[in-house]
Amino acid sequence: MKPQDIIKEKSSLWIFGYGSLVWKPDFEYKRRKIGYIRGYKRRFWHGDDFHRGDKEKPARVVTLIADEEACTWGVAYEVTECQVEASLQYLNMREVVLGGYITEMVEFMPKEGHGSVLSLVYIATPDNPIYLGPASDVEIAAQIAICRGNTGHNIEYLVRLAEFMRHHCPEVEDEHLFSIETAVLNIFSNCRELKSNDRKSLLLEVI
Given the DSSP bridges, would you call strands 12-17 and 117-123 parallel, antiparallel or unpaired? Predict the structure, then answer.
């Protein structure tokens, strides 16, 4: 069943975010839950030439890559009644028109509570013209360090996502995310043993 068909049948909808949506939804919602989806890994493999970069220097932002052994943590937002149409209109412009993402339906597992909920998620695929694909942590970090778009610096995007994971999912080791954060930090500092708050302060001072 297509996402739009599922949406038509419901007076409420869950929307799963795993990138900037975890700290910056910018739409009204009834409630939010922290949790994860199975079968996907989060990777900084998508390009962004509007929000965090531009045409000359596209930023690196996250998308989901199919992987049966993986899971990705984030936030699911429940929108109800008039919030459904308003949120989807907003996200269509933010994620689809400007971001190049497509929609899929996934099973979201809340961190607290029992049972899963069907959720809408935005995913960028290699078919997208601004999809950048895999690269080393150092190469991705170098790109993030120099990119800025209409919403802000690419470093902020990285830092906010890393801070979300540390604060809300401290038991989860997101090696890809934290390795890139460390690589960006090393561009601006030779100190590898900074505390979490010091890391955040240093990187945000740069931008």
Answer: parallel
Q: Are 51 and 156 in contact (CB under 8 A)?
A: no
Task: Copy the structure tokens of residue 66.
Answer: 């199919």
Cβ proximity of 196 and 166 under 8 Å = yes
The span from the CA of 9 to the CA of 24, in Å, is 27
Per residue in 143-168, pLDDT tens?
A: 999 999 999 999 999 999 999 999 99
Tell me whether residue 95 is one of the annotated catalytic residues.
yes
Contact 164, 116 (CB under 8 A): no
In terms of Cβ atoms closer than 10 Å to its own Cβ (0-12, 13-18, 19+), residue 2 is: exposed
Measured in degrees and rounded to the nearest 5, phi and psi for residue 167 equal -80, -45
Instruction: State the DSSP string of 25-92.
Output: --S--SEEEEEEEEEEEEEEEEEESSSS--SSS-EEEEEEEEEEEEEEEEEEEEEETHHHHHHHHHHI
The C-alpha atoms of residue 119 and residue 169 are separated, in whole angstroms, by: 20
pLDDT of 44-97, one tens digit each? 999 999 999 999 999 999 999 999 999 999 999 999 988 998 999 999 999 999
Q: Which of 81, 95, 171, 173 is catalytic?
A: 95
